[in-house]
Amino acid sequence: MSSWRSKRRIWDISQTLRPGLPVWPGDTDFAFDRTWKMEDGSPVNVGRMTMSTHSGTHGDAPLHYSADAPDIASVELDPYIGECLVVDATGVTGGEVNVGDLPHIESADRVLFRTFARFPHDEWDSGFTAIAAETIEWLALQGVKLIGTDAPSVDPQDSKTMAAHKAVLDHDMRILEGLVLDEVPEGRYELVALPLKVAGGDAGLCRAILRELAV
Ligand SMILES: Nc1ccccc1C(=O)C[C@H](N)C(=O)O
Ligand SMILES: [Zn+2]
Ligand SMILES: [Zn+2]
């Protein structure tokens, strides 16, 4: 008998989009409803959604932090697929992940940081841990093309300088935010996290997964 289930384990590292999803203070709430309902005699159910482009798990487009930079529909997809390193940064104090907090990194194309001991699924946590601009610079020099975090931003919530986003821009890196890494041990995985192709989009929602590497 055949099975749909792959022999390699998959971790779904996406937030579930649903009413009540915590969003950036002041940003658009996630809403979903049905425009056609089978219970009303429609042959099918059809829904609609209203949301911020930065809802839940998403990839920022360069356009989000630089006015003339590419939108999410224009960016190449290679950074969003391939081998990645998950780093446990749950022990970091002081608000941002610094170079000294990093483990020894042999080489990595993509690095994902787990900063929450327990992901805040039900409330917004303004005190999330950001990534220092120096850390991003350092990772770029190691050849890292994509940085991911379970926090809602690589910069602190009250940042006026957006230093981490600027470092990402300087090195033409890509960012994933709002990943859920609670169940994922530190180590190497295959990442697949493709942002939705929205023309003019400053970000794209992602269904993000990690898969056990082939041995
Ligand atoms: N929705 C916002 C409204 C105002 C200011 C920032 C945001 C963000 O979402 C920040 C974001 N997730 C980021 O890319 O760092
Ligand atoms: Zn964002
Ligand atoms: Zn961002």
TrEMBL record:
Positions bound to Zn(2+) 2: 60, 165, 177
GO molecular function, one term: arylformamidase activity
EC nos: 3.5.1.9
Gene3D superfamilies xref list: Putative cyclase (3.50.30.50)
Cofactor dependence: Zn(2+)
Residues annotated as binding Zn(2+) 1: 54, 58, 60, 177
Pathway per the UniProt entry: Amino-acid degradation; L-tryptophan degradation via kynurenine pathway; L-kynurenine from L-tryptophan: step 2/2
Keyword tags: Hydrolase, Metal-binding, Tryptophan catabolism, Zinc
Family: Belongs to the Cyclase 1 superfamily. KynB family.
HAMAP family recorded: KynB
Subunit description: Homodimer.
Protein name: Kynurenine formamidase
